[in-house]
Amino acid sequence: MAWIVLVLSGVLEAVWAAALDESDGFSRLAPSAVFLVALALSMAGLAFAMRTIPLGTAYAVWVGIGAVLTAVYAMTTGHEVASLAKVVLLGGIVACVIGLKLLE
């Protein structure tokens, strides 16, 4: 259960990061509200997962999932240029996250 919550919390990290960008410095209400809700749920999920998953592993997985999804979102929406090198390196992060799960 903790791993499922951790993965969902990582997804919510990407949601709040994208909403933060869309909020235009908190000047737009809807993205600002999405940011606050997603941030709170993401942190709560991370805290819950850390009750059974060690700190280093939980945090690395949470950040890894959030970073990869945020970068993929930015590339698919045109906010960031996609390249083969970026995709390969992001794949490396995914492999590391999977490796951490397998070691746990």
Helix content: over 70%
Low-confidence stretches: none
| Average of the residue pLDDT scores | 97
How many angstroms separate the termini? Answer: 14 Å
- Can you tell me the overall shape? flat
Largest sheet: none
Q: How many helices?
A: 4
- Sheet-strand content, in percent, reads under 5%
Question: Based on the structure, what is the oligomeric state of the protein chains?
Answer: single chain
- Rg value: 14 Å
H-E string? HHHH
DSSP E strands, number: 0
- Domains, number: 1
Assign the structural class, choosing from mainly alpha, mainly beta, alpha/beta, alpha+beta, or little secondary structure. mainly alpha
Structure description:
The chain is built from 4 helices and no strands. The protein is flat and about 40 Å long. The mean pLDDT is 97. Helix 1 packs antiparallel against helix 2 (29-49), helix 1 (2-22) packs across helix 3 and helix 3 packs antiparallel against helix 4. It is mostly helical and 104 residues long.
List keywords for this structure.
104 residues, mainly alpha
What's the structural blueprint in terms of helices and strands?
Layout: H1 2-22, H2 29-49, H3 55-76, H4 84-103
How would you summarize this macromolecular structure in one to three sentences?
The protein has 104 residues and is mostly helical. 81% of the residues lie in helices and 0% in strands.
